[in-house]
């Protein structure tokens, strides 16, 4: 019998007061051979996570005036909650004084398997993978908080349970003929089921007191109970054939049939074939002259179709809901009635989103594999995209889950690995990866619109764009279509700015058609929200018993909104903010607006960056020093994560992890920590 048992405990505190995370994990792996032809085993994981800690309000701490008074410990002070006496900035610690919370989640995941070895190279494996998660959430907002006193306190008890299981039955046959022909056949049958149960009880206006909080939720006089139970199923059949001739020519063909209960009754299943070919052409006779520098070279060609089922479990169905709605009789009297109505439009034809991909690639190794790598070029076409399509209000529904359009992807990936230095006491290995991807909408709904010339004559037709969702034929879905900011209105442009209801110090946007009105006619295509390319670079150095490694990566060419540059995100007469530049008459800059400006568009900033993500230095204690301690190995390591980043056009926090606030990339919500780690690894 083989076994593995591990325990792990984490108690981590963030850099914001109250930001804390606790987790306990254990893992057990067992495998035993019952008979020469039967092997069984299990991989089991259990985790208990505590996330019920109360974090201070970072956003409030950023806008409190430095002249505010922190009197939170003075129960008689009028400035306990409002440090400046104004209602805008609130003490970031105040509300948590009157809040009690428990948030615990437990998960149990396992894989139980059995492998039967049959004659003629046949093997059968059956896997059963259950997953169970249950969560308890309790929260009490005390009436002792003056802001919550009117509600008489409120409490919540929520219980959630998730149970998923999956069965995979796999039949394999492997055989080699004449030491040249290798054949492998794989057959798969899959079934899955997922269930979720949620019960939530809330109450407020506790009588006579809310001192017991959620422990006596029935003391609340305004109860609200709700529940939500969901159910989903899926299945799949798959067959795959692999053939290799002298490990020189390789062919793989597969076909898969998948089903999922979330799709419409007319299309619950879809079929996804794939075909791949490999050729180790470095083994050919005509390549004999390259053997002194070319170790291996393999050409790969592939085509395949895969599916996407990432939708809500009941998106294809209509549902019924109830609510209070006003009714006016002939005399003008108004009544409130609870009505039952259809809340969502059904789509029984909703089907799988599918992507067809073509790929050509080369793997290579040079100079005794001192240099190796891969080059891949691909194109992929996605059809029947799963989207929430906006509908005209006259229909009675805002949107419907639908399949639409065609999206094309083209890309290039390059990987280069190198053993730069090989010495007895010193080695340097490096790995570089470059990726580039481009997307383009080919089709949408198929609605056609007329094309007219300057005189209004119809000269043709084209497929209509979706202006509301900002999807345009021939453009990347992440292409920015918006007003073009061309600076800041200056003192000598006051009359011109007034035409748009603006004044000097406000952001200036270009009136593309010169009609004096900013409308959709003035929006133009600009840059992109997603990176134009990505790259990463890893280096590993070893010198005697020392090891040093670092990892750098970059996302380049992406643009995001930065409307804080308008200097109107808070009340400038009542609250402070981060130190930002600002336009004034004596400082007529064009990248920041005046304090309290009016902004009619969006300000976009390039968020390209290069990040030194990880640096690790370790030392292996020599074995001669460990023999007396009966220790097999001992290594001491020190590491730093998020060491430093460089963003030439972005100077407001982390360009990658900022929190979205009203569509703006605002890192004020969660500062990115730099972490240091010291570890000791040993084996006995």
TrEMBL record:
Keyword Ubl conjugation: no
Name of protein: TonB-linked SusC/RagA family outer membrane protein
Subcellular compartments: Cell outer membrane
Alphabetical UniProt keywords: Cell outer membrane, Membrane
GO CC terms: cell outer membrane
Domain of life: Bacteria
Classification via InterPro entries: Beta-barrel_TonB_sf, TonB-dep_OMP_SusC/RagA
